[in-house]
Amino acid sequence: MKLKMPELNLPGHPKPLTRIARCVSRDWQIYVLLLPVLIYFIVFHYFPMYGVQIAFRKYRFVDGISGSQWVGLKNFKDFMGAYYFGRLLSNTLLLNLYGLLWGFPIPIILAILLNQLDRARFKKFTQTAIYVPHFISTAVIAGMLYLFLSPSSGVVNYMIKALGGTPINFMIEASWFRSLYIITDIWQHAGWNTILYLAALTAIDPEIYEAATIDGANKRQKILYIDIPYLVPIMVMVFILNAGGLLSSNTDKALLMQTSGNMSTSDIIGVYVYTMGIQGGQFSYTAAIGLFVNIINFFMIISVNWVARRLGETSLF
User: Fold this and answer.
1) How far from each other are the two terminal CA atoms of the chain, in whole angstroms?
2) Coil, strand or helix: which one is 59?
């Protein structure tokens, strides 16, 4: 005969539901503020997951999602067996790898330099100046590129001709696409990305700097032994998040910068999805491509997070 142990309701150990109810009643204002965010993610991020199944179907609008023919992994096989699969994958991966290599350290360097500025008015002016490009639309950025880099009337080619060089058609030559894309991306977003690092540097106790000054440390030593160690946890987390987007690019920008001449380097997965999905109406095929990209990005962020946790104690989870 099995004996049933009695439940112990100790005064200091309330039941889980009672404990949750007590927390909600105590901090209900915080949960009310959190509610719109939860509703947003449920409506726009979790409910749409029902439509992911069209990646495994031959979707027809008249049949609906559940009524369309189930084809399994056919759409994934078609994409991986496509003629341009290798070019699409390599172009997307290289574009994001180069962007991560050159774009990741720039906001850190800018934040450290801004933190070293003593004049408050000049510091505020500099921050505002580097934040402004973030608010320029992608279409305007692309228009500026075509205007400034025009082989006939562009400012850049005018300077090249003034120095005795030959005008370059930057927007046509495939070798210039990645450089232009990454440079403009850094110019547009590097200043805005310094906000997180500046917040971390602002949280450092001023007495630490005062003690370092008394010990005879110069600015370079303060950066090496105070600023950078404090920034390392933030740097690791931002790097992990960026690594989770190695197959995701700014499709709008690549599409606006794409020309017949630079197709060999500008043809990335996002542009291909737009061409085949929006223009070609192959919704199941492009849904499979999107799911493929998200799965790769998911494994990338898990892998980089695992490596970061093994090498140090800082990780996202």
Assistant:
1) 45
2) strand
Secondary structure (DSSP) of 81-135: TSTTHHHHHHHHHHHHHHHHHHHTHHHHHHHHHHHT---HHHHHHHHHHHHGGGG
Residues 6+ apart with CB under 8 A from 84: 267, 272
pLDDT in tens, 44-85: 989 888 889 999 999 888 888 888 899 999 999 999 998 889
State pLDDT tens for residues 100-145: 999 999 999 999 999 888 888 898 899 999 999 999 999 999 999 9
This prediction has a pTM of: 0.84
Top mean-pLDDT range of 152-161, 182-191, 205-214: 182-191
Could you tell me which of 85, 45, 82, 89 has the C-alpha nearest to residue 247? Answer: 89
CA distances from 30 to 24, 43, 44, 273 (A): 9, 21, 22, 40
Q: Report whether 266 contacts 258 (CB < 8 A).
A: yes
Contact indicator for 53, 290 with CB cutoff of 8 Å: no
Question: Both tokens of residue 242?
Answer: 């960026």
Residue given tokens 């542009």 in the structure block: 271
Which CATH superfamily, name and number, covers 74-311? MetI-like (1.10.3720.10)
